[in-house]
Amino acid sequence: MKTIKIIKTKIGIMAISIMAALILTLSFLTISAYATENSIKNNVLRLHILAASDREYDQQIKIKVRNRLISEAPSIFEDCENKEEAILKTQSKLDEILLTVKDELSINNADMTVKVSIENKYFPVKEYGEYTFPAGSYDALVITLGEGEGKNWWCVIFPPLCLTEESVAFKNESVLKDGGFTKNEIKTLKSGKPEYKLKLKLLEWIFG
């Protein structure tokens, strides 16, 4: 009987140990997921353009402004090695960016107000090509046309992932590496979920 009790006790201890290990693992994964996604957000500066309305004309103006800004973005972010530098350079060029947008509006005879600012805004999950950006708050260069009540458009301007005026896509991952992204963060963007390499040391110890 004593032997049976000892066995039951050992089984109970083992079960508790396994449960504790699983709880610790889940906690670790949750914290790691948050840390990886937060790191991605901290490395990104978005361009966010809000159209005046959903009228076809206002949406066309939004696209024209988008194309103009994308074509000139490389000169704005030239030689920036990280997001902090990109934000500082953007802040120093807000007046220039505003004039650029106003010039594009004038070329297209678009009579509307413009607001240019750097804001921290919430964005939903966004899939773009092979990359999935997690939902959350990101720093963004925000261009508000008119009342800004129309469908919006966004891209990543640091790292400089917007490609051409005609289409918006992503360059190869070397741009992300140059922007400070780790291999794990790049894999997270590609898979849409964090990649973990974790061994349950406690379970290894229990089972040998």
C-alpha-based Rg, rounded: 24 Å
- Strand residues, percent: 15-25%
- Most strands sheet: 4 strands, mixed
- N-to-C SSE string, H for helix and E for strand: HEHHHEEEEEHHH
> Which shape, going by the Cα principal axes?
globular
**Averaged pLDDT:** 74
Number of helices, counting only DSSP H or I runs of 4 residues or more: 7
Distance between the termini: 27 Å
- Provide the spatial order of strands within the biggest beta sheet: 2-5-1-6
Indicate the structural class: alpha+beta
Number of domains: 2
Q: Which consecutive residue ranges, at least 5 long each, have pLDDT under 50?
A: 21-34, 163-169, 194-208
Helix coverage percent: 40-55%
| Topology, number of strands | 6
What does this structure look like?
This protein is an alpha+beta fold and about 210 residues long. It folds into two domains: about 1-40 and about 195-205; about 45-180, no CATH class. The chain is about 50% helix and about 20% strand. It has helices at about 1-40, 55-75, 85-90, 95-105, 175-180, 185-190, 200-205; strands at about 45-50, 115-125, 125-130, 130-135, 135-145, 150-160. The protein has a four-stranded mixed β-sheet with strand order 2-5-1-6. α1 crosses α6 (about 185-190) and α2 packs across α4 (about 95-105).
